[in-house]
TrEMBL record:
<keyword id="KW-0804">Transcription</keyword>
<comment type="similarity">
    <text>Belongs to the purine/pyrimidine phosphoribosyltransferase family. PyrR subfamily.</text>
</comment>
<dbReference type="InterPro" id="IPR029057">
    <property type="entry name" value="PRTase-like"/>
</dbReference>
<dbReference type="InterPro" id="IPR000836">
    <property type="entry name" value="PRTase_dom"/>
</dbReference>
<dbReference type="GO" id="GO:0004845">
    <property type="term" value="F:uracil phosphoribosyltransferase activity"/>
</dbReference>
<dbReference type="InterPro" id="IPR050137">
    <property type="entry name" value="PyrR_bifunctional"/>
</dbReference>
<dbReference type="GO" id="GO:0006355">
    <property type="term" value="P:regulation of DNA-templated transcription"/>
</dbReference>
<comment type="function">
    <text>Regulates the transcription of the pyrimidine nucleotide (pyr) operon in response to exogenous pyrimidines.</text>
</comment>
<feature type="domain" description="Phosphoribosyltransferase">
    <location>
        <begin position="3"/>
        <end position="162"/>
    </location>
</feature>
<protein>
    <recommendedName>
        <fullName>Bifunctional protein PyrR</fullName>
        <ecNumber>2.4.2.9</ecNumber>
    </recommendedName>
</protein>
<keyword id="KW-0805">Transcription regulation</keyword>
<keyword id="KW-0808">Transferase</keyword>
<feature type="short sequence motif" description="PRPP-binding">
    <location>
        <begin position="98"/>
        <end position="110"/>
    </location>
</feature>
<keyword id="KW-0328">Glycosyltransferase</keyword>
<comment type="function">
    <text>Also displays a weak uracil phosphoribosyltransferase activity which is not physiologically significant.</text>
</comment>
<dbReference type="Pfam" id="PF00156">
    <property type="entry name" value="Pribosyltran"/>
</dbReference>
<dbReference type="InterPro" id="IPR023050">
    <property type="entry name" value="PyrR"/>
</dbReference>
């Protein structure tokens, strides 16, 4: 079966804009907030969100990127030599309102790993979760506060978020697992 496109570039842009405005509404009155993208796709989407916020006149946007590789509970089963990316946070997370950004939420295990990584860096005031695609099948009691699109899938399918920053064209497809 070939890949089925579920979102194109324009739909992705509209969805991301909507999510940013939902986040702004939710954090209104707070002492600011930080965007933290989970490497890899979540980091790119967090950067795009920061750009939208800047265009909307939001000042002093704190943006960071989180590598959760060593916090994964399936690390030994996915690769003998995991590829590590850098965690880049130029602010202290203690006392901050954090919006954690990921491209796809599935079982909830990536989010759990990200929460562990953040807590190791300090004690945020609040952590909210923004997931661009929610494909269901949770194994942990974790739900996003902001969702771009809910896409029912089977466990035999993969959701592929393709981003221009990675050398492709923005689109989201569903594929059968090999």
């Amino acid at each position: 079966m070939s890949a089925k496109e579920i979102m194109n570039k324009d739909e992705m842009a509209r969805t991301l804009n909507r999510m940013v405005f939902q986040i702004l509404e939710a954090v209104r009155g707070e002492e600011g907030f930080c965007l933290v993208g989970i490497r890899k796709g979540g980091a790119t989407l967090a950067k795009r969100m920061a750009d939208i916020l800047a265009r909307e006149g939001v000042k002093n946007i704190r943006l960071g990127y989180l590598d959760i590789t060593l916090y994964r509970d399936d690390l030994s089963s996915i690769h003998d030599y995991p590829v590590l990316h850098s965690t880049e946070l130029n602010f202290d997370v203690t006392g901050q309102n954090i919006v954690l950004v990921d491209d796809v939420i599935y079982t909830g295990r990536t989010t759990r790993a990200a929460l562990d990584a953040l807590i190791d860096l300090g004690r945020p005031k609040k952590i909210l979760l923004a997931a661009f695609i929610d494909r269901g099948h949770r194994e942990l009691p974790i739900q996003p506060d902001f969702t771009g699109k809910t896409v029912p899938t089977s466990r035999s399918e993969l959701v592929d978020v393709k981003l221009e920053e990675d050398g492709g064209t923005d689109c989201i497809t569903i594929n059968k697992k090999a």
